[in-house]
Amino acid sequence: MIANSQNNVFDVTILGGGLAGLTLAKQLLTRQPGLRVAVVEKRVFPVAETTHKVGESTVEIGAHYFGEQLGLKKHLTDDQLPKFGLRFFFKDAFQSLAEGTEVGGSSFFAAPSYQVDRGRLENFLAESDQELGATIFAGARVKEVFLDSSQNGTEDTAHRVTFLQDKQKHSIESRWIVDASGRAAFIKRKLNLEEDLGHDINAAWFRIDSNIQVDAWCDDPDWQKLTGKVPRRWLSTNHLMGEGYWVWLIPLATGSTSIGIVADPRIHPLNTFNSVEKSFAWLQEHEPECADAIEDQLDQVQDFLAIKKMSRGSRQVFSVDRWGLVGEAAAFLDPFYSPGSDFIAIGNTMVGKLIEEDLAGNSITHLAPTLQSVFLTLFQNNLLTYRDQYPLFGNPRIMAVKFVWDYAVYWGFPALLYFNEKLTDASFIQSLHKGVEEIRDMNLKMQTFFRKWYEADSSVNAVPAFVDQSNIEIMTRLNRELTERLDDAALRDRFRENVVLIRELMHEIVGRICIAEPELQAEFGPQADETTSEQRLTSVFEMLEV
Ligand SMILES: Cc1cc2nc3c(=O)[nH]c(=O)nc-3n(C[C@H](O)[C@H](O)[C@H](O)COP(=O)(O)OP(=O)(O)OC[C@H]3O[C@@H](n4cnc5c(N)ncnc54)[C@H](O)[C@@H]3O)c2cc1C
């Protein structure tokens, strides 16, 4: 630790007090009480509820980080909303929801997730951080960051940050700097680390002061009862799917609904939906039921924002020179499966480990590049899930199968290791490298396969069907297994079983589709030794007439 105890000297300075910065401060102070943590945030608290930021839907890793690792379960349960999974609707513009294909659960998965009002959560975190002893410089705009590059530092070396607060210039020093400044991304810009991900996606969103429930869009009692006795589809992150786009509907605990359009500009340019009026006209054309549901409430629109080319990468995220990038200041992929909070959880956990080791006097010379390599591998693997896949988004047959694949890879690999607190255990991860590489290669192959399947058969066939993910055993099992704590040997075995499971799933999907689309056989068809007798998706294939 830096010996100087003046109040402008800290162990860790966090640039930006948004979700990543505030959760990191809580994580550090919970694990190491007494650590001197500064957060420099340009806004003042409390921030506005409802309209503060997007990033409202959490999935399992992020939800576990917030609920269990940071001890926020009570806040999430009492002051936010439970999430009824991700749900997807496919249909032609003239069909009602019930006439199209729905993919989602009929019951809650075992590992919980939440819909979070970002303003409410950040206000809660800011208070809690201060109670734990963090110094929050609010209303403080970071101006410059001076990085100390003397390898590993000494007691006397420090990074320096200058900021303006109340028109006064301040300067603070710390052994560690973590950039959590979101898109401002000070360190990434300063060191020129930006990486083009080749994934060009735009979005526009608004909040409306009304609880929009998709459950009410169709009065067929049979359809309504498919997901339980009481209407609860509205608690899902609902995705209205179409070629080149998806529309989100996310309920907020304040009673408002967040609605966003996310699209590939090659199919739906941003200038066709970059204002409230244009978004509404766009919804009238592509998702008329949604437009009908909000038409009478357009005077209750609370905000509107649009963002171009939202995906951001970074060549480096951690340094032996005692800095790290977390949250959007590091990287952001695509909101389709809500992975933003997952990467905050993973990045924060990793940078926290580096800080802990370093402050304990241990070298991070090998640990920093190893954790970075794990982080970037997970990020790149996840990117494959979205890149060049938007044209498929209107096709329920391909997407319903892709969902099973994508979830199996997510729950069976990174989520399993994260829940068991092993993503920062370098030697454990290295012991799994063969399986990790195989999953990466299989995922690469399968994401290409889904695109080629679409090229071979792009006909949209939104048959009236409910693909109930609660009845897909591989999904319920992989999700449920996240809630079990395993020792190292059992975790290694479970991971190996999951690699086999994922391999069998690949062979089943490819084998089945190649029968219907023989032109895919030469490139993807299973070899004689690759066929599987396991039939996990038969009912899905039959229901969707694959
Ligand atoms: C369209 C869209 C939809 C999304 N949907 C989801 C979703 O459903 N689920 C999900 O998990 N993620 C989602 N995300 C991602 C999610 O929004 C981000 O992961 C998350 O907001 C990043 O948090 P952060 O703390 O890194 O950045 P931010 O929340 O942006 O925080 C950065 C902070 O830095 C502060 N700051 C900036 N400049 C300065 C300065 N000069 N001085 C001091 N402070 C400064 C800002 O005021 C801000 O508070 C979505 C993203 C987009 C673009």
Q: Which SSEs are present, and which pair or pack?
A:
Layout: E1 9-15, H1 19-31, E2 37-41, H2 60-69, H3 73-79, E3 81-82, E4 86-90, E5 101-104, E6 114-115, H4 118-132, E7 135-138, E8 140-146, E9 159-165, E10 168-179, H5 186-190, E11 194-195, E12 202-208, H6 221-225, E13 237-242, E14 245-251, E15 257-263, H7 276-286, H8 288-295, E16 305-307, E17 313-314, E18 318-319, E19 323-325, H9 340-359, H10 367-386, H11 396-419, H12 426-431, H13 433-456, E20 465-468, H14 473-481, H15 488-516, H16 521-524, H17 538-543
Parallel strand pairs: 1-2, 1-10, 2-7, 4-13, 5-20, 10-19
Antiparallel strand pairs: 3-6, 4-5, 8-9, 9-10, 11-17, 12-15, 12-16, 13-14, 14-15, 18-19
The protein binds flavin-adenine dinucleotide (FAD).
Which structural traits does this protein have?
17 helices; eight-stranded mixed beta sheet; binds flavin-adenine dinucleotide; 40% helix; globular; 3 domains; D-Amino Acid Oxidase, Chain A, domain 2; FAD/NAD(P)-binding domain; 546 residues
